[in-house]
Amino acid sequence: MKVLVAVKRVVDYNVKVRVKADNSGVDLANVKMSMNPFCEIAVEEAVRLKEKGVATEIVVVSIGPTTAQEQLRTALALGADRAILVESADELTSLAVAKLLKAVVDKEQPQLVILGKQAIDSDNNQTGQMLAALSGYAQGTFASKVEVSGDKVAVTREIDGGLQTVSLSLPAIVTTDLRLNEPRYASLPNIMKAKKKPLEVLTPDALGVSTSSTNKTLKVEAPAARSAGIKVKSVAELVEKLKNEAKVI
Amino acid sequence: MPILVIAEHENGAIAPATLNTVAAAAKIGGDIHVLVAGQNAGAVGEAAAKIAGVAKVLVADNAAYAHQLPENVAPLVAELASGYSHVLAAATSNGKNILPRVAAQLDVDQISEIISVESADTFKRPIYAGNAIATVQSSAAIKVITVRATGFDAVAAEGGSAAVESVSAAHDAGKSSFVSEELAKSDRPELTAAKIVVSGGRGMQNGDNFKHLYALADKLGAAVGASRAAVDAGFVPNDMQVGQTGKIVAPQLYIAVGISGAIQHLAGMKDSKVIVAINKDEEAPIFQVADYGLVADLFEAVPELEKLV
User: Fold this and answer.
1) ipTM of the complex
2) Which spans in chain B are helix H?
3) What is the pTM assigned to this prediction?
4) Is B291 in CB contact (< 8 Å) with chain A?
Protein backbone atom coordinates (compact mmCIF):
# COMPACT_ATOMS: atom_id res chain seq x y z
CA MET A 1 0.00 0.00 0.00
CA LYS A 2 0.97 3.61 -0.49
CA VAL A 3 1.88 5.66 2.59
CA LEU A 4 1.87 9.46 2.62
CA VAL A 5 3.97 11.23 5.25
CA ALA A 6 3.69 14.93 6.01
CA VAL A 7 6.78 16.75 7.31
CA LYS A 8 7.30 20.31 8.53
CA ARG A 9 10.37 22.52 8.53
CA VAL A 10 10.63 24.12 11.97
CA VAL A 11 13.20 25.81 14.16
CA ASP A 12 15.57 23.17 15.58
CA TYR A 13 14.33 21.91 18.95
CA ASN A 14 17.62 22.78 20.65
CA VAL A 15 17.38 26.45 19.74
CA LYS A 16 16.21 28.84 22.42
CA VAL A 17 14.04 31.21 20.42
CA ARG A 18 13.83 34.98 20.96
CA VAL A 19 10.81 37.15 20.49
CA LYS A 20 11.32 40.09 18.09
CA ALA A 21 11.53 43.53 19.69
CA ASP A 22 8.48 44.78 17.75
CA ASN A 23 6.40 41.82 19.05
CA SER A 24 5.54 40.75 15.49
CA GLY A 25 6.79 37.21 15.99
CA VAL A 26 9.76 35.04 16.83
CA ASP A 27 13.14 35.89 15.30
CA LEU A 28 13.99 33.10 12.86
CA ALA A 29 16.72 34.90 10.90
CA ASN A 30 19.92 32.82 10.86
CA VAL A 31 18.43 30.23 13.20
CA LYS A 32 19.04 26.52 12.59
CA MET A 33 16.01 24.82 11.02
CA SER A 34 15.27 21.09 11.04
CA MET A 35 12.55 18.54 10.44
CA ASN A 36 9.98 18.67 13.26
CA PRO A 37 10.91 15.79 15.67
CA PHE A 38 7.44 14.22 15.48
CA CYS A 39 7.66 14.24 11.67
CA GLU A 40 10.97 12.33 11.87
CA ILE A 41 9.12 9.67 13.84
CA ALA A 42 6.41 9.62 11.15
CA VAL A 43 8.99 9.10 8.38
CA GLU A 44 10.68 6.36 10.42
CA GLU A 45 7.38 4.53 10.93
CA ALA A 46 6.64 4.62 7.20
CA VAL A 47 10.11 3.28 6.40
CA ARG A 48 9.65 0.46 8.93
CA LEU A 49 6.29 -0.41 7.33
CA LYS A 50 8.08 -0.64 3.99
CA GLU A 51 10.82 -2.82 5.46
CA LYS A 52 8.12 -5.15 6.80
CA GLY A 53 6.61 -5.39 3.33
CA VAL A 54 3.41 -3.59 4.37
CA ALA A 55 4.08 -0.35 2.49
CA THR A 56 5.06 -0.43 -1.17
CA GLU A 57 5.66 3.27 -1.76
CA ILE A 58 6.37 6.19 0.60
CA VAL A 59 5.48 9.68 -0.60
CA VAL A 60 6.64 12.51 1.61
CA VAL A 61 4.97 15.91 1.43
CA SER A 62 5.78 19.28 2.94
CA ILE A 63 3.94 22.57 2.77
CA GLY A 64 6.03 25.69 3.15
CA PRO A 65 8.82 27.79 1.67
CA THR A 66 11.28 26.65 -1.03
CA THR A 67 13.80 25.87 1.71
CA ALA A 68 11.53 23.06 2.97
CA GLN A 69 13.07 21.03 0.11
CA GLU A 70 15.97 20.40 2.54
CA GLN A 71 13.65 18.55 4.91
CA LEU A 72 12.09 16.62 2.01
CA ARG A 73 15.59 15.55 0.88
CA THR A 74 16.27 14.41 4.45
CA ALA A 75 13.10 12.28 4.36
CA LEU A 76 14.18 10.85 0.97
CA ALA A 77 17.57 10.00 2.45
CA LEU A 78 15.81 8.18 5.29
CA GLY A 79 13.92 5.97 2.85
CA ALA A 80 10.99 7.85 1.27
CA ASP A 81 10.60 7.17 -2.47
CA ARG A 82 9.51 10.56 -3.75
CA ALA A 83 8.59 13.99 -2.46
CA ILE A 84 6.03 16.71 -3.04
CA LEU A 85 6.47 20.32 -1.96
CA VAL A 86 3.42 22.54 -1.89
CA GLU A 87 5.22 25.87 -2.02
CA SER A 88 3.84 28.77 -0.03
CA ALA A 89 5.77 31.63 1.48
CA ASP A 90 2.86 32.60 3.73
CA GLU A 91 2.55 31.36 7.27
CA LEU A 92 -0.34 28.91 7.05
CA THR A 93 -2.74 27.79 9.76
CA SER A 94 -3.33 24.12 10.51
CA LEU A 95 -6.67 24.23 8.67
CA ALA A 96 -5.04 25.63 5.51
CA VAL A 97 -2.34 22.95 5.70
CA ALA A 98 -4.99 20.25 6.23
CA LYS A 99 -6.88 21.49 3.13
CA LEU A 100 -3.71 21.39 1.03
CA LEU A 101 -2.91 17.92 2.35
CA LYS A 102 -6.46 16.82 1.51
CA ALA A 103 -5.84 17.90 -2.11
CA VAL A 104 -2.62 15.86 -2.14
CA VAL A 105 -4.46 12.88 -0.59
CA ASP A 106 -7.12 13.10 -3.33
CA LYS A 107 -4.37 13.09 -5.95
CA GLU A 108 -2.21 10.35 -4.46
CA GLN A 109 -4.88 8.11 -2.87
CA PRO A 110 -2.67 6.71 -0.06
CA GLN A 111 -4.00 4.00 2.26
CA LEU A 112 -2.29 5.47 5.27
CA VAL A 113 -1.27 9.05 6.07
CA ILE A 114 1.22 9.56 8.90
CA LEU A 115 1.83 12.95 10.51
CA GLY A 116 3.51 14.10 13.70
CA LYS A 117 1.17 14.82 16.60
CA GLN A 118 2.24 18.46 16.78
CA ALA A 119 4.81 20.87 15.39
CA ILE A 120 7.15 22.30 18.02
CA ASP A 121 6.78 25.87 16.68
CA SER A 122 3.02 26.48 16.69
CA ASP A 123 2.30 23.69 19.23
CA ASN A 124 -1.18 23.38 17.68
CA ASN A 125 -1.77 19.63 17.56
CA GLN A 126 -4.53 20.04 14.93
CA THR A 127 -3.45 19.17 11.38
CA GLY A 128 -3.83 15.36 11.48
CA GLN A 129 -7.27 15.55 13.06
CA MET A 130 -8.37 18.22 10.58
CA LEU A 131 -7.12 16.20 7.61
CA ALA A 132 -9.04 13.19 8.95
CA ALA A 133 -12.21 15.28 9.18
CA LEU A 134 -11.82 16.74 5.67
CA SER A 135 -11.08 13.38 4.06
CA GLY A 136 -13.69 11.54 6.13
CA TYR A 137 -11.08 9.03 7.33
CA ALA A 138 -10.69 7.56 10.81
CA GLN A 139 -7.90 8.97 12.98
CA GLY A 140 -5.41 7.34 15.34
CA THR A 141 -3.77 10.24 17.17
CA PHE A 142 -0.78 10.20 19.55
CA ALA A 143 0.21 6.72 18.35
CA SER A 144 2.78 4.69 20.25
CA LYS A 145 2.16 1.50 18.22
CA VAL A 146 0.79 0.94 14.71
CA GLU A 147 -0.13 -2.49 13.32
CA VAL A 148 -1.63 -2.89 9.85
CA SER A 149 -3.56 -6.09 9.16
CA GLY A 150 -5.72 -6.46 6.05
CA ASP A 151 -7.97 -3.44 5.63
CA LYS A 152 -7.61 -2.33 9.26
CA VAL A 153 -4.95 -0.65 11.33
CA ALA A 154 -4.71 -1.11 15.10
CA VAL A 155 -3.33 2.01 16.78
CA THR A 156 -2.25 2.12 20.42
CA ARG A 157 -2.64 5.70 21.59
CA GLU A 158 -1.10 7.57 24.50
CA ILE A 159 -3.97 9.02 26.52
CA ASP A 160 -3.90 10.94 29.81
CA GLY A 161 -4.40 7.90 32.05
CA GLY A 162 -2.33 5.40 30.10
CA LEU A 163 -2.81 3.64 26.75
CA GLN A 164 -5.83 3.02 24.53
CA THR A 165 -6.00 0.78 21.47
CA VAL A 166 -8.44 1.47 18.64
CA SER A 167 -9.04 -0.33 15.36
CA LEU A 168 -9.48 1.88 12.28
CA SER A 169 -10.68 1.09 8.77
CA LEU A 170 -8.18 1.97 6.04
CA PRO A 171 -7.58 4.49 4.60
CA ALA A 172 -6.79 6.20 7.89
CA ILE A 173 -4.77 9.02 9.44
CA VAL A 174 -2.19 8.34 12.15
CA THR A 175 -0.32 10.99 14.18
CA THR A 176 2.86 9.97 15.97
CA ASP A 177 3.79 10.31 19.61
CA LEU A 178 7.36 10.29 20.91
CA ARG A 179 7.51 6.66 21.87
CA LEU A 180 6.35 5.20 18.55
CA ASN A 181 9.95 4.61 17.46
CA GLU A 182 13.47 5.96 17.48
CA PRO A 183 14.26 7.61 14.15
CA ARG A 184 17.41 6.50 12.31
CA TYR A 185 20.10 8.78 10.94
CA ALA A 186 20.61 9.26 7.22
CA SER A 187 23.84 7.71 5.93
CA LEU A 188 26.08 9.66 3.56
CA PRO A 189 25.47 7.31 0.56
CA ASN A 190 21.71 7.63 1.15
CA ILE A 191 21.97 11.43 1.33
CA MET A 192 23.75 11.33 -2.06
CA LYS A 193 21.14 8.96 -3.53
CA ALA A 194 18.31 11.15 -2.21
CA LYS A 195 19.48 13.99 -4.46
CA LYS A 196 18.39 11.95 -7.48
CA LYS A 197 14.95 11.00 -6.17
CA PRO A 198 11.96 12.85 -7.68
CA LEU A 199 10.70 16.04 -5.99
CA GLU A 200 7.57 17.62 -7.41
CA VAL A 201 6.70 21.25 -6.63
CA LEU A 202 3.06 22.35 -6.52
CA THR A 203 1.29 25.53 -5.45
CA PRO A 204 -1.92 26.10 -3.48
CA ASP A 205 -3.39 27.72 -6.62
CA ALA A 206 -2.60 24.66 -8.74
CA LEU A 207 -4.34 22.51 -6.13
CA GLY A 208 -7.32 24.90 -6.12
CA VAL A 209 -7.11 25.48 -2.37
CA SER A 210 -7.74 28.80 -0.62
CA THR A 211 -5.46 29.33 2.36
CA SER A 212 -7.36 32.21 3.94
CA SER A 213 -7.68 32.09 7.71
CA THR A 214 -10.12 33.08 10.45
CA ASN A 215 -7.23 33.50 12.92
CA LYS A 216 -4.99 36.55 13.18
CA THR A 217 -1.95 36.84 15.43
CA LEU A 218 -2.03 40.32 16.97
CA LYS A 219 1.27 40.10 18.82
CA VAL A 220 3.89 37.76 20.19
CA GLU A 221 5.50 38.47 23.56
CA ALA A 222 8.17 36.91 25.70
CA PRO A 223 6.69 35.05 28.67
CA ALA A 224 6.92 36.70 32.07
CA ALA A 225 10.34 35.96 33.49
CA ARG A 226 10.57 34.25 36.86
CA SER A 227 12.41 36.25 39.45
CA ALA A 228 15.74 34.78 40.39
CA GLY A 229 15.68 32.34 43.26
CA ILE A 230 18.19 31.53 45.94
CA LYS A 231 20.41 28.57 46.65
CA VAL A 232 19.93 27.00 50.05
CA LYS A 233 22.78 25.22 51.83
CA SER A 234 20.98 22.34 53.48
CA VAL A 235 17.78 20.31 53.46
CA ALA A 236 16.88 21.81 56.85
CA GLU A 237 17.14 25.33 55.43
CA LEU A 238 15.02 24.28 52.42
CA VAL A 239 12.26 22.91 54.66
CA GLU A 240 12.36 26.04 56.82
CA LYS A 241 12.00 28.29 53.72
CA LEU A 242 9.16 26.21 52.27
CA LYS A 243 7.31 26.29 55.58
CA ASN A 244 7.86 29.87 56.68
CA GLU A 245 8.77 31.92 53.62
CA ALA A 246 6.89 30.30 50.70
CA LYS A 247 4.28 28.72 53.00
CA VAL A 248 3.62 25.88 50.56
CA ILE A 249 4.00 22.91 52.92
CA MET B 1 -25.27 33.32 21.82
CA PRO B 2 -24.45 30.68 24.42
CA ILE B 3 -21.13 28.84 24.78
CA LEU B 4 -20.84 25.08 24.46
CA VAL B 5 -18.37 23.27 26.73
CA ILE B 6 -17.58 19.64 25.94
CA ALA B 7 -17.44 17.77 29.26
CA GLU B 8 -14.45 15.55 29.91
CA HIS B 9 -15.47 12.51 31.92
CA GLU B 10 -14.29 9.05 32.82
CA ASN B 11 -15.77 6.20 34.83
CA GLY B 12 -18.99 8.09 35.44
CA ALA B 13 -17.33 11.17 36.94
CA ILE B 14 -16.62 14.66 35.58
CA ALA B 15 -12.87 15.18 35.05
CA PRO B 16 -11.44 18.18 36.96
CA ALA B 17 -10.25 19.84 33.71
CA THR B 18 -13.92 20.42 32.80
CA LEU B 19 -14.21 22.84 35.75
CA ASN B 20 -11.28 24.91 34.45
CA THR B 21 -12.84 24.93 30.98
CA VAL B 22 -16.15 26.22 32.39
CA ALA B 23 -14.11 28.95 34.15
CA ALA B 24 -12.65 30.00 30.77
CA ALA B 25 -16.17 30.03 29.29
CA ALA B 26 -17.33 32.27 32.14
CA LYS B 27 -14.58 34.77 31.27
CA ILE B 28 -15.80 34.93 27.67
CA GLY B 29 -19.32 35.69 28.95
CA GLY B 30 -22.70 34.30 27.93
CA ASP B 31 -24.84 31.34 28.93
CA ILE B 32 -22.79 28.18 29.38
CA HIS B 33 -24.12 24.86 28.14
CA VAL B 34 -22.26 21.61 28.81
CA LEU B 35 -22.39 18.63 26.47
CA VAL B 36 -21.94 15.19 28.01
CA ALA B 37 -21.50 12.58 25.27
CA GLY B 38 -21.03 8.97 26.23
CA GLN B 39 -22.62 5.66 27.01
CA ASN B 40 -24.71 5.52 30.21
CA ALA B 41 -23.89 9.20 30.65
CA GLY B 42 -26.92 10.02 32.83
CA ALA B 43 -25.02 10.26 36.13
CA VAL B 44 -22.33 12.43 34.53
CA GLY B 45 -25.08 14.69 33.18
CA GLU B 46 -26.49 15.08 36.72
CA ALA B 47 -23.01 15.93 38.02
CA ALA B 48 -22.49 18.45 35.21
CA ALA B 49 -25.78 20.16 36.13
CA LYS B 50 -24.35 20.94 39.58
CA ILE B 51 -21.29 22.81 38.24
CA ALA B 52 -21.47 26.46 39.26
CA GLY B 53 -22.39 28.79 36.39
CA VAL B 54 -23.75 26.16 33.99
CA ALA B 55 -27.15 27.07 32.49
CA LYS B 56 -27.98 23.87 30.63
CA VAL B 57 -26.62 20.35 30.24
CA LEU B 58 -27.07 18.35 27.05
CA VAL B 59 -26.73 14.59 27.44
CA ALA B 60 -26.05 12.52 24.32
CA ASP B 61 -26.33 8.96 25.55
CA ASN B 62 -25.46 6.46 22.86
CA ALA B 63 -23.25 3.39 22.53
CA ALA B 64 -21.51 5.13 19.59
CA TYR B 65 -20.15 7.77 21.98
CA ALA B 66 -18.54 5.28 24.36
CA HIS B 67 -14.78 5.84 24.68
CA GLN B 68 -15.19 9.23 22.95
CA LEU B 69 -14.24 8.02 19.46
CA PRO B 70 -13.69 11.26 17.49
CA GLU B 71 -15.20 9.86 14.27
CA ASN B 72 -18.55 9.69 16.12
CA VAL B 73 -18.36 12.50 18.69
CA ALA B 74 -17.03 15.22 16.31
CA PRO B 75 -20.09 15.11 13.96
CA LEU B 76 -22.35 15.36 17.04
CA VAL B 77 -20.50 18.46 18.32
CA ALA B 78 -20.38 19.99 14.83
CA GLU B 79 -24.14 19.51 14.47
CA LEU B 80 -24.86 21.13 17.85
CA ALA B 81 -22.32 23.94 17.31
CA SER B 82 -24.51 25.97 14.95
CA GLY B 83 -26.41 27.41 17.91
CA TYR B 84 -23.28 28.59 19.73
CA SER B 85 -20.73 31.42 19.53
CA HIS B 86 -17.92 29.34 21.07
CA VAL B 87 -17.16 25.63 21.43
CA LEU B 88 -14.67 24.84 24.21
CA ALA B 89 -12.95 21.69 25.39
CA ALA B 90 -10.14 21.06 27.84
CA ALA B 91 -6.73 20.54 26.23
CA THR B 92 -6.62 16.94 27.46
CA SER B 93 -5.81 14.00 25.19
CA ASN B 94 -9.55 13.71 24.53
CA GLY B 95 -10.10 17.40 23.82
CA LYS B 96 -7.07 17.56 21.53
CA ASN B 97 -8.27 14.45 19.71
CA ILE B 98 -11.84 15.58 19.05
CA LEU B 99 -11.92 19.37 18.74
CA PRO B 100 -9.72 19.94 15.64
CA ARG B 101 -11.96 17.44 13.86
CA VAL B 102 -14.95 19.58 14.85
CA ALA B 103 -13.22 22.79 13.70
CA ALA B 104 -12.42 21.34 10.28
CA GLN B 105 -16.02 20.16 9.88
CA LEU B 106 -17.13 23.72 10.67
CA ASP B 107 -14.42 25.12 8.32
CA VAL B 108 -12.87 27.36 10.99
CA ASP B 109 -9.38 27.61 12.45
CA GLN B 110 -9.02 26.34 15.99
CA ILE B 111 -7.17 28.12 18.79
CA SER B 112 -5.27 25.56 20.87
CA GLU B 113 -4.45 25.65 24.59
CA ILE B 114 -5.46 29.17 25.52
CA ILE B 115 -4.09 30.43 28.84
CA SER B 116 -6.12 33.63 29.03
CA VAL B 117 -9.23 35.30 27.63
CA GLU B 118 -8.59 38.91 26.50
CA SER B 119 -12.07 39.39 25.02
CA ALA B 120 -14.77 37.27 23.41
CA ASP B 121 -12.66 36.93 20.24
CA THR B 122 -9.07 37.39 21.48
CA PHE B 123 -7.02 34.87 23.44
CA LYS B 124 -3.46 34.25 24.59
CA ARG B 125 -1.67 30.98 24.00
CA PRO B 126 1.91 29.76 24.38
CA ILE B 127 3.96 28.80 21.29
CA TYR B 128 7.52 27.47 20.85
CA ALA B 129 7.32 25.30 23.99
CA GLY B 130 6.16 28.25 26.06
CA ASN B 131 9.07 30.47 25.00
CA ALA B 132 6.66 32.97 23.44
CA ILE B 133 3.06 33.97 24.12
CA ALA B 134 0.88 34.76 21.10
CA THR B 135 -2.23 36.93 21.24
CA VAL B 136 -4.65 35.51 18.66
CA GLN B 137 -7.89 37.00 17.37
CA SER B 138 -10.55 34.87 15.71
CA SER B 139 -13.06 36.16 13.18
CA ALA B 140 -14.80 32.78 12.91
CA ALA B 141 -18.58 32.72 13.41
CA ILE B 142 -18.11 29.77 15.78
CA LYS B 143 -14.89 29.96 17.76
CA VAL B 144 -13.40 26.54 18.46
CA ILE B 145 -10.97 26.58 21.36
CA THR B 146 -9.11 24.18 23.64
CA VAL B 147 -8.33 25.41 27.14
CA ARG B 148 -5.13 24.76 29.10
CA ALA B 149 -6.52 23.82 32.51
CA THR B 150 -3.65 25.34 34.48
CA GLY B 151 -4.41 28.78 32.99
CA PHE B 152 -7.78 29.06 34.75
CA ASP B 153 -8.93 28.55 38.34
CA ALA B 154 -11.56 25.80 38.50
CA VAL B 155 -15.18 26.76 39.17
CA ALA B 156 -17.02 25.00 42.00
CA ALA B 157 -18.25 21.50 41.19
CA GLU B 158 -21.31 22.04 43.37
CA GLY B 159 -23.88 24.79 43.72
CA GLY B 160 -25.36 24.96 40.23
CA SER B 161 -28.79 23.68 39.22
CA ALA B 162 -28.86 23.50 35.44
CA ALA B 163 -31.64 21.92 33.42
CA VAL B 164 -30.73 18.58 31.84
CA GLU B 165 -31.86 17.94 28.29
CA SER B 166 -31.26 14.80 26.29
CA VAL B 167 -29.92 14.93 22.74
CA SER B 168 -31.18 12.18 20.46
CA ALA B 169 -28.72 12.68 17.58
CA ALA B 170 -26.79 9.48 16.92
CA HIS B 171 -23.70 9.55 14.75
CA ASP B 172 -21.90 6.31 14.09
CA ALA B 173 -19.36 6.68 11.31
CA GLY B 174 -18.53 2.97 11.52
CA LYS B 175 -14.89 3.68 10.71
CA SER B 176 -13.34 3.01 14.09
CA SER B 177 -13.82 0.81 17.12
CA PHE B 178 -12.46 0.64 20.64
CA VAL B 179 -10.27 -2.39 21.31
CA SER B 180 -8.77 -2.04 24.78
CA GLU B 181 -7.46 0.30 27.41
CA GLU B 182 -4.55 -0.03 29.78
CA LEU B 183 -4.68 2.57 32.53
CA ALA B 184 -1.83 3.17 34.95
CA LYS B 185 -3.09 2.73 38.50
CA SER B 186 -2.19 5.24 41.16
CA ASP B 187 -3.52 6.13 44.62
CA ARG B 188 -1.76 9.48 44.53
CA PRO B 189 -3.47 12.67 43.36
CA GLU B 190 -3.84 13.21 39.64
CA LEU B 191 -0.75 14.93 38.23
CA THR B 192 -2.45 17.90 36.57
CA ALA B 193 -4.68 18.60 39.59
CA ALA B 194 -2.16 18.07 42.42
CA LYS B 195 -1.15 20.98 44.67
CA ILE B 196 2.34 19.55 45.06
CA VAL B 197 4.28 17.63 42.40
CA VAL B 198 7.54 15.78 42.97
CA SER B 199 9.32 14.90 39.71
CA GLY B 200 12.34 12.79 38.95
CA GLY B 201 14.67 12.84 35.98
CA ARG B 202 17.60 10.95 34.59
CA GLY B 203 19.47 11.54 37.84
CA MET B 204 17.21 8.96 39.53
CA GLN B 205 19.35 6.33 37.71
CA ASN B 206 16.66 3.61 37.70
CA GLY B 207 12.97 2.96 38.26
CA ASP B 208 13.52 1.40 41.66
CA ASN B 209 14.99 4.65 42.99
CA PHE B 210 11.68 6.40 42.34
CA LYS B 211 10.60 4.81 45.65
CA HIS B 212 12.40 7.70 47.37
CA LEU B 213 10.17 10.15 45.48
CA TYR B 214 7.02 8.10 46.22
CA ALA B 215 7.84 8.15 49.93
CA LEU B 216 8.35 11.92 49.86
CA ALA B 217 5.20 12.42 47.76
CA ASP B 218 3.08 10.37 50.16
CA LYS B 219 4.30 12.46 53.09
CA LEU B 220 3.36 15.66 51.20
CA GLY B 221 0.15 14.39 49.59
CA ALA B 222 1.84 15.05 46.26
CA ALA B 223 1.68 13.56 42.77
CA VAL B 224 4.80 12.12 41.18
CA GLY B 225 5.94 13.22 37.73
CA ALA B 226 8.96 12.62 35.55
CA SER B 227 11.04 14.19 32.82
CA ARG B 228 11.11 12.72 29.34
CA ALA B 229 14.58 11.35 30.01
CA ALA B 230 13.24 9.29 32.92
CA VAL B 231 10.33 8.02 30.82
CA ASP B 232 12.46 7.18 27.80
CA ALA B 233 14.92 5.33 30.02
CA GLY B 234 11.96 3.18 31.14
CA PHE B 235 12.11 4.27 34.82
CA VAL B 236 8.39 5.13 34.91
CA PRO B 237 5.34 4.95 32.58
CA ASN B 238 4.86 7.75 30.04
CA ASP B 239 1.67 9.16 31.54
CA MET B 240 3.91 10.59 34.29
CA GLN B 241 5.79 12.79 31.83
CA VAL B 242 5.72 16.52 32.49
CA GLY B 243 6.63 18.76 29.56
CA GLN B 244 5.75 20.14 26.15
CA THR B 245 4.74 16.73 24.87
CA GLY B 246 3.51 15.35 28.18
CA LYS B 247 1.40 16.96 30.86
CA ILE B 248 1.33 20.65 31.71
CA VAL B 249 1.21 21.25 35.47
CA ALA B 250 1.08 24.41 37.58
CA PRO B 251 1.01 23.27 41.21
CA GLN B 252 1.72 25.37 44.32
CA LEU B 253 5.00 23.53 44.76
CA TYR B 254 7.06 21.67 42.15
CA ILE B 255 10.07 19.73 43.36
CA ALA B 256 12.43 18.76 40.52
CA VAL B 257 14.84 16.02 41.54
CA GLY B 258 17.71 15.03 39.27
CA ILE B 259 16.20 17.00 36.37
CA SER B 260 18.54 19.22 34.32
CA GLY B 261 15.73 21.47 33.05
CA ALA B 262 15.58 21.17 29.25
CA ILE B 263 13.26 23.75 27.64
CA GLN B 264 10.77 21.00 26.74
CA HIS B 265 10.48 20.09 30.43
CA LEU B 266 10.27 23.71 31.59
CA ALA B 267 7.35 24.23 29.17
CA GLY B 268 5.37 21.79 31.29
CA MET B 269 6.05 23.20 34.77
CA LYS B 270 7.40 26.76 34.72
CA ASP B 271 4.04 28.24 35.76
CA SER B 272 4.28 26.46 39.12
CA LYS B 273 4.04 28.88 42.06
CA VAL B 274 7.20 27.72 43.82
CA ILE B 275 9.87 25.61 42.15
CA VAL B 276 12.48 23.67 44.11
CA ALA B 277 15.43 22.04 42.37
CA ILE B 278 17.62 19.36 43.87
CA ASN B 279 20.57 18.58 41.63
CA LYS B 280 24.23 17.87 42.15
CA ASP B 281 25.21 19.86 39.03
CA GLU B 282 25.17 23.49 40.09
CA GLU B 283 25.26 24.57 36.40
CA ALA B 284 21.99 22.75 35.60
CA PRO B 285 19.53 25.10 33.79
CA ILE B 286 16.78 24.12 36.25
CA PHE B 287 18.43 26.43 38.82
CA GLN B 288 17.61 29.42 36.58
CA VAL B 289 13.89 28.95 37.19
CA ALA B 290 14.02 27.48 40.70
CA ASP B 291 12.95 29.65 43.64
CA TYR B 292 14.97 27.42 45.96
CA GLY B 293 17.89 25.41 44.71
CA LEU B 294 19.82 22.81 46.62
CA VAL B 295 23.08 21.54 45.16
CA ALA B 296 23.29 18.08 46.68
CA ASP B 297 23.25 14.36 45.98
CA LEU B 298 19.57 13.49 45.67
CA PHE B 299 20.08 10.09 47.32
CA GLU B 300 21.06 11.90 50.52
CA ALA B 301 18.84 14.97 50.20
CA VAL B 302 15.51 13.30 49.34
CA PRO B 303 15.41 10.85 52.31
CA GLU B 304 16.45 13.69 54.62
CA LEU B 305 13.74 15.93 53.15
CA GLU B 306 11.18 13.16 53.68
CA LYS B 307 12.16 12.96 57.37
CA LEU B 308 11.94 16.71 57.93
CA VAL B 309 8.61 17.55 56.27
Assistant:
1) 0.94
2) 16-28, 42-49, 70-81, 93-106, 210-220, 228-232, 263-266, 298-308
3) 0.94
4) yes
